[in-house]
Amino acid sequence: MKRIYESNALRRDDTDPFSPNERDSSREPQAMRSVPSTYLSRLLVPHRVRYWSISVDVSTPKTEYTVGESVPFAVTMKNAMPFPITIPVRSLIAWDWEVDGLTQAAHVDPRDPPEETRGFRFSRGERKQYRRRWQGMFRVSESEWEPAPPGEYTIGAGINIEGAVKKGLYDETTVRLVPE
Questions:
Q1: How wide is the angle at C-alpha 131 spanned by C-alphas 68 and 84, nearest 5°?
Q2: Cα–Cα distance between 176 and 42 in angstroms, integer?
Q3: 8 A C-beta contact, residue 60 and residue 173
Q4: How far apart are CA 180 and CA 171, in angstroms?
């Protein structure tokens, strides 16, 4: 290709739109400037659309476990939109899980995060997956855990916003603990 440009085989004319222009080798290509997608998401995308675009799913490999066996579960969050989405969350903890309404299966609050509004960012079409385990126990004090008796338990997870269930940013699944 270089030989064609260096030879006079091509007619160059700056005024004719169908012929190549003179080459300007002194110009360097300029990098494309990035657009702050988090800012644009906050500015242009309404809250309702942000909530509709994110889906939350909680799943376990099986539905029955023996008492004392740990229960693995996966929390999958997906942005269905072809553009980035930022969800404003209440604290530094963007999402959390619970068992029968107890955050991280604890009767005591496991941590007290500061109330700071942050953004939980999803790139376009991004899928985030988190894997956790419930050990089949409930925390009853700072240093004491109690095993869960046989029965049905609901494991849920959601994004840390006010009204996550109503806005569709929460999901749950039910597992059964059976005696050995």
A1: 155
A2: 41
A3: yes
A4: 29
Determine phi and psi for 165, rounding to 5 degrees: -65, -50
Pairwise CA distance, residues 176 & 148, whole Å: 11
CB atoms within 10 A of CB 174: 11
- Tokens encoding 92: 């530094």
Domain boundaries, the chain: 37-178
**Nearest alpha carbon to residue 164 among 58, 44, 43:** 58
Domain 37-178: what homologous superfamily? Immunoglobulins (2.60.40.10)
pLDDT tens track for 139-167: 888 888 888 999 999 999 999 999 999 99
What the block records as the tokens of 157 is 């997870």
At 123-139, the pLDDT tens digits run 888 999 999 999 989 88
Are 170 and 87 spatial neighbours (Cβ–Cβ below 8 Å)?
Answer: no
Please tell me the predicted confidence (pLDDT) of residue 28.
Answer: 59
Contacts of 125 (CB under 8 A, 6+ apart): 78, 79, 80, 81, 82
Euclidean distance between CA atoms 87 and 110, whole angstroms: 24
Report how far residue 2's alpha carbon sits from residue 18's, in angstroms, rounded to the nearest whole number: 20
Look up the pTM and report it. Answer: 0.73
Instruction: Match 């089949």 to its residue by tokens.
Output: 136
CA 124 to each of CA 40, 78, 86, 121: distance values in angstroms, whole numbers, following the listed order: 13, 9, 10, 10
